[in-house]
Amino acid sequence: MSISAIVPVWNGRELVERLLDTLDAQTFPVDELLVVDNGSTDGAPELARRRGAQVIAMGRNCGFARAVNRGIAASRSEWIAVLNSDVELAPDYLEALVDTGAWFATGKILQAGRGARDRLDGAFDALCRGATAWRVGNGREDGPAFASARAIWSAPWTAAVFRAELFRRAGVLEESFDSYLEDVDFGLRCARLGLEGQYVPGAVAWHRGSAALGRWHPDTVRHIARNQILLAARHFPRRCLVRWAWPILVAQLLWGGVAIRHGAGGAWARGVWEGLRSFSGSRKKSTVCGPELLRRILAEHEGAIRQVQSSTGFDLYWRLYFLLAGGGAK
Q1: What was the pLDDT predicted at 245?
Q2: Distances (CA, A) of 265 to 218, 225, 252
Q3: Is there a contact between 141 and 155 (Cβ–Cβ < 8 Å)?
Q4: CA distances (Å), 278 to each of 65, 229, 285, in order?
Q5: Distance between the two ends of the chain, CA-based, in angstroms?
Q6: Is 89 within 8 Å of 98 (Cβ atoms)?
Q7: pLDDT tens, 123-172?
């Protein structure tokens, strides 16, 4: 049984070196290390090459999705690990995920940095009817809510393992998403096909998070705002767009309010406009879910969001969303 590791890189030489150190220490060794360079200028790809990686040069910053897809196309193993360059892995991380035998798996990803290593970066992804997603557990202290293994439909591609066969069945990342929410889009395609993954809390990794640009950088906010609209375009049937018009409006405006509070209101508005402008074209290139199937998927997702929010303390965003949008996917 073999595994390839794909690491998209855009600068961050020191972070890449830390990740490679943790890969060298894995109890399930990587057979093939593919570093896909998005035009780094700080020596990161040269470091990776010296450490034994095959470096695939993209020539410029083509975004996360295109870089990962290039790595998938070049990989030759039964399993594929996709790893952000600002991640550090516990020594048994890859072994624990491969041992599940699931179509894909991810572990408990904690925040890196001083004083933050007992807080979650995220466990798995969940999407609401309003087409906004939550990386479940983000910012919460580690605890019982994140201690149980469970089946999932969507894994963060921060540090996840996939069967290579999955990409032949579900396709690869949607490159029009560039970066952000491309993993949620992929998860919806897996759910539509019944290809289930696993969350494995015993596998632990640490993620610095938005190391390249920053969480509220205008480009980050613009991409997220646009891609939330595109998720609805690509996956929501017309019946659901009509039935959930109010939850969609609530979710998007609430998210805009959060962006404004962080000084990124203009970037949010540009992203929404880009999403609306691309809505029709994106919809034509995709196959939407059946209404009943999507209702079941999002009912499960919203149930997970509500359960964790309730047990760990509601964020204002999700408190207002559930208050204004109502109970669940109907």
Answers
A1: 97
A2: 9, 10, 12
A3: no
A4: 18, 9, 11
A5: 43
A6: no
A7: 999 999 999 999 999 999 999 999 999 999 999 999 999 999 999 999 99
Torsion angle of C-alpha atoms 297, 303, 308, 313, degrees rounded to 10: 130
SS3 161: strand
- Backbone φ and ψ for 326, nearest 5 degrees, come out as 95, -175
For every residue of 209-228, which 3-state class applies, written as one string? Answer: CCCCCCCCCHHHHHHHHHHH
- Token pair in block for residue 228: 């939330």
Evaluate whether 138 touches 122 at the Cβ level (below 8 Å). yes
pLDDT at 214 > cutoff 70: no
In whole angstroms, give the CA distance from residue 266 to residue 242: 27
Residues 179 and 112: their CA atoms lie apart, in Å, by 21
Distance CA 172, CA 192 (A): 15
Angle at 216 between CA 15 and CA 104, to 5 degrees: 55
DSSP 44: H
Give the whole-angstrom CA distance, residue 186 versus residue 167. Answer: 10
Query: For residue 29, what are the CA distances in angstroms to 69, 94, 280?
Result: 22, 8, 45
- Quick one: tokens of 236? 């929501």
Tokens linked to 192: 């539509």
CB atoms within 10 A of CB 296: 14
Residues in the chain: 330
Which residues are within 8 A (CB) of 64 and not within 5 positions of it... i.e. 6 or more apart? Answer: 8, 157, 173, 178, 179, 180, 182
What is the residue type of 1?
Answer: M
* DSSP code per residue over 232-272: HHHH--HHHHHHTHHHHHHHHHHHHHHHHHTT-HHHHHHHH
